[in-house]
Write a structure and sequence with these properties.
single chain, about 500 residues, alpha/beta, Aldehyde Dehydrogenase, Chain A, domain 1, Aldehyde Dehydrogenase, Chain A, domain 2, 2 domains, seven-stranded mixed β-sheet, six-stranded mixed β-sheet, 16 helices, about 20% strand, globular
């Protein structure tokens, strides 16, 4: 993976991080009502990066009321779809212009390499936003042919209302911008609660939203803890839908919390995705592809292909290639020139991932490479490859959310048996196949129980493709047409002629 060289943080980004941070409600920056703050740490150093407002239930209530007022009255409900699309294009242009600052902010806030923050976080978000803008005027109903004579009916798709969006810390800004894109394109309004560990991307996005000229109340951002601000947003009776990206355990709680009001719920949750490398695969592509499907963003990705199944004919060759890549991957602060993998997001996450590695070793796993903390400052962990793993190990069953590959050989040619291995998990978010045999690819893809099957590198999280999971990986889909339609209700209008 080529690293993008970036000099030290700019004065503009430094000033942004150090300034007092407020809540973005009704197009204004306001103090939290309780006046409390949260210290945010730089994961590369473990030192303070800045402070944010700790919003609570009263702030959430204010933001929801602003979003409800914007949805029910004012310019938003009567705004033509093309005007909503123009606002998204304006915001995309502003994001693109601020790409360097966004990349710097994400490197300091989340720890990711600057290039990932700039290209994946900023420029990728601008591309997704322009794609979503195109759907603003293209969601329509239909005129079905009825069974009864002299009857006529049609259907409408209408925006669902106020959407509460809760985003995780692993890929801030991109996820926040994606939710903004789909909410705006659908005609809904929103309250966004970003992760308290990585809030600065969302706050920077709020500044750009304000500059783009969105009507008051359409987009509101409340920073705070999950068990206060997040909980209040989920339970608020005037929120029509919760769109949550995060852990399966929190998703399960959200389902229960939304039951009394039966508000709509979309959940993009965890994964333990399988990768299969067949003997006919192009190993020059499969080896780095399988490695970076886990090591990218320090393994803190929900689609990580962390269960790596390699055909026994090429097992040694693939393990040697991936292990060599892991040894040579430059691990360091996101803004350090040449850095290819940053730190984990927090001390707690470092302890959690290290604990999984230790449990694997205790259960008999072989550490081929890595497995240890790197350095004494920050939350760095060596990219790790474990061999001699098997299905009953905790490290194979649980979502680790770190740069840890569990490699296992397979020799079976029976695709039903291979699919059974792939599906031997409570999750079903993503999967990966490396093979040049078209028949193998199509037959196995059909048998895998996962929302996405990426073949020979696939297409990543392209904005045109619906994204979501089977089983405990979530409910519903984001991105694509499906992501917009998921934010709308269907109304039937029927009449006698």
């Amino acid at each position: 993976m080529n690293a993008v060289v970036k000099p030290a943080v700019s004065d503009r980004t430094h000033a942004f991080l150090q300034q007092p941070h407020k809540l973005f409600i009704n197009n204004q920056w306001v103090e939290s009502r309780a006046g409390q703050t949260i210290e945010v740490l730089n994961p590369a150093t473990g030192k303070a990066l800045g402070r944010i407002a700790a919003g609570d239930a009263s702030d959430i209530d204010l933001a929801v009321k602003a979003a409800r007022a914007a949805f029910d009255s004012g310019p938003w409900p009567s705004m033509p779809p093309i005007e909503r699309a123009k606002l998204l294009w304006k915001l995309a242009d502003l994001i693109e212009a601020a790409a360097d600052q966004i990349g710097e902010t994400l490197s300091l806030d989340n720890g990711m390499p600057f290039g990932m923050g700039k290209f994946g976080g900023a420029l990728g978000s601008a591309q997704s936003m322009r794609y979503a803008a195109g759907w603003a005027g293209k969601i329509d109903g239909r005129v079905p042919v009825l069974s009864a004579p002299d009857k006529f009916a049609y259907t409408l798709r209408e925006p669902i209302g106020v959407v509460g969006c809760i985003t995780p810390w692993n890929f801030p800004f991109a996820m926040e911008a994606d939710k903004v894109s789909q909410v705006v394109a659908s005609g809904c309004t929103m309250v966004l609660k970003p992760a308290e560990l990585t809030p600065f991307g969302a706050l920077l996005l709020g500044k750009l939203v304000q500059e783009a000229g969105f009507p008051p109340g359409v987009i509101n951002i409340v920073t705070g803890y999950g068990n206060t601000a997040g909980k209040a947003l989920v339970e608020h009776p005037d929120v029509n839908k919760i769109s949550f990206t995060g852990s399966t355990a929190t998703g399960q709680w959200i389902v229960q919390a939304c039951a009394p009001t039966l508000k709509r719920v979309a959940l993009e949750l965890g994964g333990k995705s399988p990768t299969f490398v067949f003997p006919d695969a192009d190993l020059s592509q499969a080896i780095p592809g399988a490695a970076m499907a886990v090591f990218v963003n320090s393994g803190q990705i929900c689609v990580a292909g962390s269960r790596l199944y390699i055909h026994k004919k090429v097992f040694d060759q693939v393990i040697e290639g991936i292990s060599g890549l892991a040894r040579n991957l430059k691990v360091g602060p996101g803004l350090e020139p040449g850095s290819q993998m940053g730190p984990l997001v927090s001390q707690g996450q470092l302890d959690r991932v290290s604990g999984y590695i230790e449990s694997g070793i205790t259960e008999g796993a072989e550490v081929v490479v890595g497995g240890k903390r790197q350095g004494s400052e920050g939350y760095f962990l060596q990219p790790t490859v474990l061999a001699q793993t098997h299905r009953s190990m905790k490290v194979v069953r649980a979502e680790i959310f770190g740069p840890v590959i569990c490699a296992m050989p397979f020799g079976d040619e029976d695709l039903d048996a291979i699919a059974k291995v792939a599906n031997d998990t409570t999750y079903g978010l993503s999967s990966y196949i490396w093979s040049r045999d078209v028949g193998t690819v199509h037959k196995l893809a059909k048998r895998i129980h996962a929302g996405t099957v990426q073949v020979n590198g696939g297409a990543g999280l392209d904005p045109a493709l619906p994204f979501g999971g089977y089983k405990q990986s979530g409910w519903g889909r984001e991105k694509g047409r499906e992501g917009i339609e998921a934010l709308m209700e269907i109304k039937t209008v029927a009449m006698s002629l």
